[in-house]
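Protein Entry — a single chain follows
Next Lines — sequence and tokenised fold
***
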Amino acid sequence: MRIVVAIGGSILMKEYDYKKFQEYAEILRFLAQENEIFVVVGGGKPARDYISIVRDLKCGEAKCDDIGIEVTRLNAKLLILALKNDAYPSVPHNFQEAEKYSASGKIVIMGGTEPAHSTDAVSAILAEYTKADLLINLTSVDGMYDKDPTNNSDAKLIEEITATEMLEFIKNKDVKAGTYEFFDMTAIQMIKRSSLETVIANGNDPKNLLKILKKEKLGTRIIAK
């Protein structure tokens, strides 16, 4: 099975130490024994901190994106180091390079690619480009909620939703570099048009990856229609 895994930077960089990278490396190494694995890593708080400085310098959103992309690529390099010889040693700059690197049989780790594309979008485009069988998006919450669960104690987890319903849900949201919206328009459009099986789940426990592949009930499943 060909799998694209998106790991939020807020998960990997939560404690600013090596442990979460090491934990994910162990799980990804195990999965790669029987699957072809691509990973897209987000920027997390370090990216938002740098983007804040660029925004204060009034350099424009494209420059903010550019700095954020550099941070995601740095996080990707850290995960490559944690995986050692099981990962391809270079971070792809684009989807063509990612596919090319996968011919090595090693796990391919990438970050952002270009302005106006979040790493959620990158993972969805990569999944479409490589004809992946499954996209798993690991975030800091349990899945998609009807409202922000960090600010609303009555927020309810949506266990299943169509891509069309998700597009309707976020269509009026303002998306800027480094801001957190639950999936962006590009990501959902890719999922819809390529009928891509997608699961959004909590990534704080790397073992959730294994649970998803065992078809355990976890997070939010997106129906591509």
